[in-house]
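chain below, 115 aa
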Amino acid sequence: MSNECQVEHRKEIMAVHDTMDILNGKWKISIISSICYHNKRRFTDILNDVNGISNKMLSKELRDLEINKLIKRTVLDTQPVTIHYQLTDYGLTLKTIINDLAEWGLKHRKVIIDG
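prediction:
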């Protein structure tokens, strides 16, 4: 393998590492999926979609995703106050990855069950 090729792959591996750094943990991909598949979600909707996550953890993860400009939090002037979460345009770039993960997961489950 040429040195130039090794450098290119090193960049790609680092890029995967950077991506995993932002999407790390048990919950972020599931939270993004919930919002992605439904466009807009309320806190309780996401809580119901993501099996096993606590209120505190969901709040933390939503903040992290907002800091990384993947989701947008909108506070609506209703009684009581309603908050919606949706993917930003930047966050929507993850839609292909989410769909690929879902497709792979369905195939994997079939391989394991039918195995």
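The first helix runs from residue 3 to 22. Strands lie at 40-42, 71-76, 82-87.
thats it, cya
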